[in-house]
C-alpha cells in the first residue's frame, strides 16, 4: 500500500514514523511519501495561498499549486481522498475497504481551505474523522494511515485484527493479565479453566454486554443467535 500525502506541513507526520507504522514502513509493507505542496509554488516567496474572492476572513490554498503537486504523483491506480469535516465520517468498514486500494493520495487542507475547483477536479472522496473542526487535515490523514495500515498484510498478526473491537460489529471483551488478584479484584475463573469452548462463549457474551453498555446502537447491525438475543433481553431487564 502506498500513501502519498499532499500537505503544507510534512514535519507534522513524525508520530507515524514510530511503533507499528514505523516498523511497517521500514519493512516496506507500506510506503508513506510526504509531498510538500509548497514545493510546487511558482512564486518567488513560495507563497501558496491567497485571499478569498467575494471577501471573507482567512486565506485559501491556490488550485494550481495543489494540481501540480497532485500531477507529480498520480497514477492510473490512485484514489484521492480529501480530509475535511464536510466528508463522510470514517468507520471501520470504510477503513477495511480503503485497505484494498493500491495507492491513496491524501490531500490535507490547512488555513481556511482549498480552492473548490481543484477539489472538483481531483478528489474522489471526502472523509472526516468526526464532527469537530481541526486546524488541518494532517492529524486526520495520520488517523487514516494508521487505521488502514493495520489491515495491510504483515503489519499486524492476523488474530489481532480478527478479535478486536468492531471486527464482528461488537466491541471487544475485557482482557486480563497477571497478577491473578489486583486490589481485591480477581481474574474471572473461566479464563483460568483452560476450557476453550467455555472461554469463547464467555468472551462473546462479554462482548455483547460491553457493546450494550457502551455503544448500544451498534447492536442493531449485529446478527445474534436466539440464545444471544435472550441474553441481551436479560441484560435490558
Ligand atoms: N480537517 C479539519 N477537521 C477535520 C475533520 N474533523 N476530519 C477530517 N479533516 C478535517
What is the element layout, followed by pairings?
Elements: E1 2-7, H1 19-26, E2 31-36, E3 49-51, E4 59-61, H2 63-71, E5 78-89, H3 92-98, E6 103-108, H4 116-122, E7 125-128, H5 138-149, H6 158-162, E8 181-182, E9 185-186, H7 196-214, H8 226-236
Parallel strand pairs: 1-2, 1-6, 5-6, 5-7
Antiparallel strand pairs: 3-4, 8-9
Helix pairs in contact: 2-4, 7-8
Bound molecules: adenine (ADE).
Radius of gyration: 23 Å
Largest sheet: 5 strands, parallel
State which percent range the strand residues make up.
Answer: 15-25%
| Unreliable stretches | none
Q: State mean pLDDT (0 to 100 scale).
A: 96
Structure description:
The chain is an alpha/beta fold. It folds into two domains: 2-157, SPOUT methyltransferase, trefoil knot domain (Alpha/beta knot); 163-236, Trp Operon Repressor, Chain A (Orthogonal Bundle), CATH 1.10.1270. The chain is built from eight helices and nine strands. It has helices at residues 19-26, 63-71, 92-98, 116-122, 138-149, 158-162, 196-214, 226-236; strands at residues 2-7, 31-36, 49-51, 59-61, 78-89, 103-108, 125-128, 181-182, 185-186. The protein has a five-stranded parallel β-sheet with strand order 2-1-6-5-7. A hairpin with a 7-residue loop joins strand 3 and strand 4. Helix 2 packs parallel to helix 4 and helix 7 crosses helix 8. The protein is elongated and about 70 Å long. The mean pLDDT is 96. The structure holds adenine. The site of adenine has 11 residues, from strand 5. Adenine binds at residues 83-85, 128-130, 132-134, 137, 140.
Amino acid at each position: 500500500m502506498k500513501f502519498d500525502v499532499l500537505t503544507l506541513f510534512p514535519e507534522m507526520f513524525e508520530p507515524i514514523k514510530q511503533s507499528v507504522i514505523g516498523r511497517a514502513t521500514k519493512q516496506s509493507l507500506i510506503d508513506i511519501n510526504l509531498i510538500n505542496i509548497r514545493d510546487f509554488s511558482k512564486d518567488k516567496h513560495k507563497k501558496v495561498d491567497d485571499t478569498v474572492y467575494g471577501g471573507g476572513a482567512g486565506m485559501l490554498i491556490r488550485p494550481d499549486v495543489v494540481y501540480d503537486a497532485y500531477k507529480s504523483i498520480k497514477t492510473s491506480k490512485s484514489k484521492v481522498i480529501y480530509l475535511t469535516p464536510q466528508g463522510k465520517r470514517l468507520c471501520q468498514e470504510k477503513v477495511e475497504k480503503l485497505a484494498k486500494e493500491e495507492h491513496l493520495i491524501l490531500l490535507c487542507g490547512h488555513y481556511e481551505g482549498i480552492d473548490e475547483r481543484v477539489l472538483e477536479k481531483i478528489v474522489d472522496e471526502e472523509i472526516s474523522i468526526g464532527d469537530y473542526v481541526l486546524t488541518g487535515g494532517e492529524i486526520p490523514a495520520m488517523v487514516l494511515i494508521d487505521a488502514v495500515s493495520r489491515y495491510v498484510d504483515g503489519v499486524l498478526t492476523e488474530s489481532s485484527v480478527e478479535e478486536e473491537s468492531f471486527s464482528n460489529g461488537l466491541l471487544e471483551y475485557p482482557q486480563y493479565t497477571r497478577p491473578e488478584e489486583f486490589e481485591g479484584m480477581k481474574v474471572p475463573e473461566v479464563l483460568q479453566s483452560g476450557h476453550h469452548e467455555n472461554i469463547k462463549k464467555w468472551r462473546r457474551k462479554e462482548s455483547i454486554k460491553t457493546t450494550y453498555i457502551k455503544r448500544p446502537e451498534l447492536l442493531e447491525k449485529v446478527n445474534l443467535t436466539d440464545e444471544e438475543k435472550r441474553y441481551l433481553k436479560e441484560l435490558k431487564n
